[in-house]
Design goal:
With 141 residues, this protein is of the alpha+beta class. It contains three helices and five strands, in the order βααββββα. The protein has a five-stranded antiparallel sheet with strand order 1-3-4-5-2. The two termini are 15 Å apart.
Length: 141
């Protein structure tokens, strides 16, 4: 595998703001946006890539966040429906860069966008490890 392989897959998950997502200003708390991305990735790993997180765990792998960057454009409020779109932008020997956008469902306006860089780890040692070729293939759709 090349050190950097550009992969352009994009998937969406629909969600809704819950009461416990809100801050004192009745907007979604900034930390929840990354929770939404994580929930979307878990959904998409199973539904779109057909390899859920449980498969990584069974094989002795895990993912850790190396870098997270989010730009907040406009708030989401109680009960609003939104779409989390993610895409694997780049795959490295031991990790991936996932871009994301969170948009209001009713008008498609961006509320938050950014990227998260994940590193694959060996679950026993906790150290980074190379992504096996079969996983690279499965996630290169």
């Amino acid at each position: 595998m090349d050190p950097k392989v550009n992969v352009y897959s994009s998937f969406e998950s629909e969600m809704r703001v819950r009461p416990d997502d809100l801050d004192v200003n009745a907007h979604v708390h900034y930390t929840r946006y990354l929770d939404y991305v994580l929930a979307a990735r878990y959904d998409q790993m199973e539904r779109c890539y057909l390899m859920p997180m449980s498969e990584f765990t069974k094989r002795g792998f895990g993912w850790v966040v190396r870098t997270a960057h989010a730009e907040f454009k406009r708030p989401l409020g109680m009960g609003e429906y939104f779409i989390v779109r993610t895409a694997i932008e780049e795959m490295r020997k031991d990790g991936v860069r996932v871009t994301f956008s969170i948009r209001r469902k009713d008008n498609n306006k961006v509320c938050c966008e950014g990227f998260i860089e994940y590193t694959m780890i060996d679950a026993v040692s906790g150290r980074s490890t190379s992504i096996p070729p079969d996983i690279v293939e499965k996630y290169s759709i």
